[in-house]
Structure to design on (165 residues):
DNA sequence: GTCTTGATTGTTACA
DNA sequence: TGTAACAATCAAGAC
């Protein structure tokens, strides 16, 4: 059972109450939601800013799908430049898709997740060794992981090139 | 020039 | 275990 959670929930309480037409893209409310922003900022400042080297989160299957969907959407709607519109349309499409249709995106997402896990492992090792004031060991292991990543990326590049075609 | 917003779902990380 | 934050995208407004 899916529930509206996180940002969506927060938006549901505020933004979602407004008619979508009212939510024009680019029409940023001048410091409209200090609550939400400050929350994000706090987290960002306490985490992301402290760990700029921290690997970025892997895209979920939906985001992988969205990447492709954006291209299609742009082609079909060259005049629509609002990212919110793409997100909305993508969400509708995603929900209408069957498991079989979602499968390839989920597979891709799983791959990215595996990469992320590896990167996080290396990242955590680095953090540990940094505590000791020594990171030669992790540097080595990191480079090993990086090497693996390079190989994988190379494979992925090939795959992507094929897809590009 | 830099930052923030919007819209979506899924996943991660943290309390 | 529940929930907030974040992942991509980019035009445009605010500062």
């Amino acid at each position: 059972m899916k529930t509206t959670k996180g940002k969506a929930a927060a938006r549901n309480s505020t933004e979602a109450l407004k008619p979508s037409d009212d939510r024009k893209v680019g029409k940023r409310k001048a410091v409209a939601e200090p609550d939400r922003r400050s929350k994000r900022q706090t987290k960002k400042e306490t985490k992301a800013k402290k760990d700029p080297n921290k690997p970025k989160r892997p895209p979920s299957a939906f985001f992988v799908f969205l990447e492709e969907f954006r291209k299609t959407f742009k082609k079909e709607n060259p005049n629509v430049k609002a990212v919110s519109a793409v997100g909305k349309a993508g969400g509708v499409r995603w929900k209408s898709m069957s498991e079989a249709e979602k499968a390839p995106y989920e597979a891709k997402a799983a791959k990215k997740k595996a990469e992320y896990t590896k990167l996080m492992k290396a990242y955590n090792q680095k953090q540990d060794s940094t505590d000791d004031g020594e990171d030669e060991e992790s540097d080595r292991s990191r480079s090993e992981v990086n090497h693996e990543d390079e190989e994988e990326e190379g494979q992925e590049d090939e795959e992507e090139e094929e897809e590009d075609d």
